[in-house]
TrEMBL record:
It comes from Octadecabacter antarcticus 307. Residues 116-148 form the Zinc-binding loop region of homing endonuclease domain. InterPro entries: Endonuclease_Zinc-binding_loop, His-Me_finger_sf, Homing_endonuclease_His-Me. This is Zinc-binding loop region of homing endonuclease domain-containing protein. One of its GO terms (molecular function) is endonuclease activity.
Length: 189
């Protein structure tokens, strides 16, 4: 599938989800400024989809990762905007004059899924790339899960700086390292 087709498909998913968006029975009890703002953004479907489309087309389409066990969750290439430490932002202004700045990947997740998030919700990247806004690389989670993602990335040999990080280390004295796995005889017959 080409990136152009993937963009078209994601825009169709977003349009369907925005069309079917309904407030939860607890909407009034859960109201926050951000939730109210996004409720209005979802209601202005045409403008919101144009912004989403511009973001998707503006993003640099990265090559897919080499498939490894630690990269199995995001096998397709990232759509990147901004920098790892400073991802792209979105500023939107409503007809009421309200405006807000949002990280692009958070905006993409909420719009594509037509899902209002709570302030404690974070967007996790299955690709470990904060500048990525490809919808199938984004999942919602907690701050604790996000820290666990960082630990898993570092354990897999990709440092805290993200893609392209080089990890160095030392091997303890007396430990033998071989690139060829050796068969161990467990003595079981």
């Amino acid at each position: 599938m080409t990136n152009k087709q993937a963009i078209t498909d994601w825009l169709e998913v977003a349009e369907k989800n925005l069309t079917n968006f309904t407030k939860s029975p607890f909407h009034e009890q859960l109201r926050t400024r951000d939730r109210d703002l996004y409720t209005k953004v979802f209601a202005d479907k045409a403008t919101t989809l144009k912004v989403l489309e511009r973001l998707f087309h503006k993003a640099r389409k990265a090559k897919p990762f080499e498939l490894t066990m630690s990269r199995i969750q995001a096998p397709l290439g990232c759509w990147e905007l901004g920098k790892q430490k400073d991802p792209h932002g979105v500023r939107f202004v409503l007809s009421t004059g309200e405006s807000d700045d949002e990280i692009a990947y958070r905006f993409v997740f909420m719009v594509v899924n037509a899902r209002l998030l709570n302030p404690e919700d974070v967007i996790r990247h299955t690709c470990d790339n904060r500048k990525c806004l490809r919808p199938d690389h984004l999942i919602v989670g907690s701050a604790k899960e996000n820290r666990q993602d960082d630990e898993a990335r570092i354990y897999a040999g990709r440092g805290a700086e993200g893609k392209g990080q080089i990890i160095t280390g030392e091997i303890a004295e007396g430990v033998e390292v071989s690139i060829y796995p050796q068969r161990l005889d467990a003595g079981i017959e």
